[in-house]
Amino acid sequence: MRPLKRRWKPLAAAVTVILIQIWVFSWCNRENAEHFPVTLTDAPLDNQNLKNLKPSLTVILQDFDVFENTIYDTVAYIARNFTDIDVLVISETLPYPPVKVPNLQNVKLIILKADPGTTLNATRPDLNIRSNFVLFIPDGSVLDIHFKRSFNVFTRNFEADKQEGYATPVGNVQLSCRGINFNLKMWTLHFGDIVKTGKCGYIIGEHGILLETKHLYAVSQPHLPSTFISLYAQLSLVQFKFTVTKDLHLRKLPTKPKSPQALWQLKQFKQKSVQQLYHQLGVKKVVHENEKVDWYGCHKESTRCFDTVYQDMPEFLYHGRWTPPCCLNNLRETSKHVFTILERCKVRYWLEGGSLLGAARYRDIIPWDYDVDIGIYKDDIGKCTQLSRIALESYVDDEGYKWEKAIEGDFYRVQYSEVNHLHVDIFPFYSKNGVMTKDTWFKTHRQDTEFPEYFLTPLSWVMFGGINASAPNHIRDFLEYKFGKGVIESPKYPNAEVVVG
Fold this sequence. Notes:
29% of the residues lie in helices and 22% in strands. By secondary structure, it is α+β, with helices and mostly antiparallel strands. The protein starts with a helix and ends in an 18-residue tail after the last helix. This is Fukutin-related protein.
């Protein structure tokens, strides 16, 4: 017995040392986890794997003001109280002034436009989502235990494969269900009126957006600036709808009122984010529910929205889009300016080619046309100071329009401005044995041909882009003489075989 007692004391001491080492090792690992966040995942989950997951959630914060925000408190509250929920803070560039993010194992800051030295995993949100649901929340909104319980109930009763997202109100705010129409071909986003069916295109009021993760793959760019507007606009292209949840509510963190300076900075931040979003989505025109229109395209002080046109095919047609609405609007203004001057000078003019075809078919410019063509009597040039001056020099008139002689041939051109080259081409015709002819022809334009003068005696009028414009008489006969039978009823693109849509 005595030898056994002698052995027991060293054994007990050894066990004690081992336990202390285990405790120290565990404590160090915990400290390291807090100070060195780990990567959430190295590869995205496909839809099949997402279906096999138990209901799980990733929270995403993206739109936040770098000057004054509650990112740290928001993220810390969620990540520390719900360790089974991953939190992603997403920014287009590294935030400056710097934004503090908690160093927790289930938190990650993702910079979309990162430096060359960073990894792909660090710049791709989709590579860091391992849940089958994602929740986009505004800064200062958090999940609490009631939300988590309601979410568990929600997922138990959830019907998979629905084309539907969910708006989660912040506090007791009343959300407004609205319609939305993103016309990609016409570069236009239209925010509609109140929708009473409960199937919303977009939602007004402070809220979060809950989606199945697979629905992020239904859009090309789910993490653009102004994320909520971006998601609503892009998902509308696949007939996606949203409903307001009754049971899932976010809680607002208490914050002090913002100073006037902070409010001004926030307004500037939101305006810049919206401009960036519309630029990346290719939105040139936004129509609000009160019919107010905001333009995000070209203007007199900018270049036009498209580059040099090759073989009569503007680049936007290759992308399945029509002429940007700002360009069409600026062409209408240029046309009105030119027509007003010519009428004042008693110069006989008429719509030519595709412009006359647009007037006959749409009472407007053809939706994919990019200039306006008119003919004039060459004998009338001397009646108009503006036309006579072009022979001597190019110039900009008092309203900012540039008048010049075209370099492609013997005709004139009036541009929207010196930098914006949307234009009206003016072709001088003269009568020769009862036939209208001119000195410059475009071989690739079938409609660019001589025609009997009787189409101009007398001239008629036609609606064109909201104004009355001079036109040949017997417009249908004139167009069919130039283009062929049935041209008004048979719209087609130039080089139609290579156009996307």
